[in-house]
Amino acid sequence: MKYLTLLTKSIMVVALLAFIGQSASAATYTATASGNWSSAATWGGTAPGASITGSDIIVINTGVTVTLDEDVTINNASASLTVTGTLSGSSNLMVSAGTLAGAGTISVNTLTAGSGSTITFSGNIVANQLVNSNAALSLLANVSVADSVILNSGVLQMGITGVATLANNITFVMAGGSFGAGTGTVNLSGNYNLYYTGPSATIGLEASLTGLQNLTVNLTSASAQLSLSGNLSVAGNVNVQQGTIALGVHTLTVGGSLTASGNGSISGGMFSGLTLNGSGSSSTITFASGGQMLGNLTIDAASGGSVMLGSDVTVNTSLNLNNGALMLNGNTLTIGGSVAVAGTGSVSGSTSSGIILTGSGSIGTLTFTASADTLGSLDINTSSGASVSLGSSLVVTGNLSVMGGSLNLNGQGLVVGGTISNISGGSLMGSASSSLSFTGSGNIGTVVFGAGGQALNNLTINIGSSGNVTFGSSLTVAGTLSLTSGTITIDTSSLTIAATGSVTGGSSSSYVITTGSGSLIMAVASGGASGAFQVGTQANFAPVMVTNNSSTSGNFMVNVQTGVYANGTGGADLATAQSLVNATWNIESSISSGANVNLQVSWNTAMQVNGFDNTQAYVSHYMNSAWSTGTAAAATAQGGGYYSLALNGVTSFSPFAVFDKNTTTGISRVSNATGIQLYPNPVTDQMHVVLPESLPAYKVHIYDALGNEIMHSEAVAGTNYFNTQNLAPGVYFLSLNGNTTKRF
Asked: With contact defined as beta carbons under 8 Å apart, do 737 and 716 qualify?
């Protein structure tokens, strides 16, 4: 019985405690007087506290103002806060779960709607920050936000009666949530900013409001992407701190600076667009791997402003340089379309930067920032007929490749410090106001000038004593050809120095090599003016001095070849056996009549072959199908192993060579020497040769028509007999003492 009574009492106590506990978790708090949230007097006895975790009902009636003097969190789905009066203060109100209702006024620092909240409040909300994590929050209130709207998750929109008034320079923080269209109204009193700090996302309606000032992207990882859903214009700055802005097929326009570097980048494509209209020099663009392409890139910075590349990029359609500089910053810019320059627009390069052009048609003009800006490489690989022009002078320190189309110097200067490639029909286009300098070393390559562009003002060769550049087309230099170091090979082309031009330098380590039919052409004035032709063979420097004594000025064409031929330009090579200088100077002139020229040819000892005696030598002229004889004399030593001889009073032009007194030229030198008889002619078995008494003995050589020696013998004054029955029918030549030749 006692046990039963005790059990009954225990049950009663437990029931009472349960009732008390239930009452504690489901209390109702009604503000009966204006005062602080934390004050019991405000609530007529007990304050609801800062953390509402039970199913409490909190009511602030009309006419009552409760001051939020502490941060308050409502975190129970059954709890509610109804405000028909006023709740205000500088603290924060967070409705993590539960209901916020009423039609009064709420004015707090931060109002947060959590994922479990229900917001039916339709009065006035004033907050510095509005935070939403609700899956679908449709506000019915008049909401004024002074600082930021933070969207952690879900969709925030304005309901049918909702009006959002956003202060100037407010920031939308997109941390995983989004902004919906809704049926209410959004009013902006000025500009606003966007800050993306969540995972990958697509820009939504938050970017469609008028007055987007600044955009900051700081996503959760470098691989996360913020994708454009349409064209986007940002009046101020775009700062990509982490993650990538994926342009897609849309255009991003930035009115301030664009900074995408470090863990931040831009990802474009064939149809993407990027327009930079800002000023200053703070823009740096790094393109993500796999997204280093744009359809269009427009730089319209204020004068003095610049945009810096942080990676390689390809501009597929159009590069528009309106104002400011695009700084390559050690990267490669590939232009697949056109280049348009207006205002102060330019490109700024460096020794580690490169430009590749792959477009077609008239590509446009490349203008560089500095007066002689620098690129590491320039690659013109356009379609046939395409052209690109220089808008300023340029130094290419590495390779210049013109594989297709043409590079028009456009009156500018081009310096090639490396090599030049031209194997697919590409060409340079020069003019009388353009200049070209080669300053590299070694075998530079072949340069070709296109038809209509085979002219330069100045041409400079400074490529080291062993360097060479080959010209695959003819060229006219209107200004100065500067031969500092290295050689030019013109092969079958002609290098012309105009009447207005001149040549400086020229030496055994820098001259024009005429390996083929091409010539160095220079104008030489009349009345005794002279022109120095700095020419030579591939192995040796062999210059020519032309003094024009004619009454007419004219062009002289000079070519020097290794070898001396019996027929002037053909037949046997006399240099294989005869004592001579192993070179033929082919000289022509535009003077058609009345020519009177002194020639001085020079050579070095390495060109003397077969025991050539430079103390008994002369210049021979091939004319009238024969090599001329001359008075042997000592060549003039010029130092460094070089010698020269002159031939004065030249009135016609063809090959010239240097022989000594012992040279026999076969069919090429025929003289009508007096006092010498040869009979019968034609001869059959025996030839009679009558020699004068001027010498007691003679050396006789017989050559065939190709200059090959057939026999030799000694002869004396008087009649000599030679057996010719073993000679095949043909033309032969008899040489006496290497000077006089008779034909039989």
From this structure: no
Residue 537 forms beta bridges with which residues?
A: none
DSSP 628: P
Structure tokens at 499: 């009447």
Nearest to 139 by CA among 154, 153, 118: 118
Phi/psi of residue 607, each to 5°? -90, -5
User: What is the DSSP-derived secondary structure letter of residue 507?
Assistant: B
Rounded CA separation 583/565 (Å): 10
Rg (CA), the chain: 48
Nearest to 10 by CA among 722, 682, 18, 56: 18
Percent helix, strand, coil in the chain (nearest 5)?
5, 50, 40
CA dist 361 and 521 (Å) reads 35
Is residue 738 left, alpha or beta, with left meaning phi > 0 and alpha meaning psi from -120 to 50?
left
User: Alpha-carbon distance 340 to 319, whole Å?
Assistant: 6
Pick from 85, 72, 75, 81: which is nearest to 37 by CA?
Answer: 72
Compute the distance between CA of residue 688 and CA of residue 666 in angstroms, rounded to an integer.
19
| Contacts of 447-450 spanning 24+ positions with Cβ under 8 A | 447/420, 447/422, 447/471, 447/472, 448/402, 448/422, 448/472, 448/473, 449/473, 449/474, 449/475, 450/406
Q: Are 299 and 273 in contact (CB under 8 A)?
A: no
> Which is nearest to 71 in space by CA: 119, 110, 43?
110
Rounded Cα gap, residues 74 and 94, in angstroms: 6
d(CA 174, CA 201): 9
* Residue 514 identity: T
C-alpha–C-alpha distance, residues 648 and 698, integer Å: 30
H/E element, 630 = none
Determine the Cα–Cα distance for residues 143 and 137; give it in Å rounded to an integer: 13
Q: How would you class 562 by CB atoms within 10 Å of its CB: exposed for 0-12, middle for 13-18, buried for 19 or more?
A: middle
Distance (Å, whole) CA 690 – CA 683 = 15
Which two tokens mark 631? 């008075």
- CB-count exposure of residue 124 (10 Å: 0-12, 13-18, 19+): middle
What is the rounded distance in angstroms from the CA atom of residue 532 to the CA atom of residue 506?
Answer: 9
CB 157 within 8 A of CB 134: no
Angle (nearest 5°) at CA 444 between 443 and 447: 130
For every residue of 17-51, DSSP letters joined together read HHHHHHHHHT-EEEE-SSEETT-GGGGTS----SE
Quick one: which of 457, 458, 445, 451 has its CA closest to 474?
A: 451
Calculate the alpha carbon distances from 52 to 21, 134, 305 in Å. 15, 19, 56
Q: What is the mean pLDDT of each run of 10 residues along the chain (744 residues)?
A: 29 33 68 97 96 97 97 97 98 98 98 97 98 95 97 95 95 95 91 96 93 96 96 95 97 92 93 86 86 95 83 96 92 95 90 93 89 92 88 96 93 96 84 97 94 97 96 96 97 94 97 94 96 97 97 96 92 92 97 94 97 97 88 95 96 95 64 68 87 76 76 86 87 73 76
Residues facing 714 on adjacent strands: 699
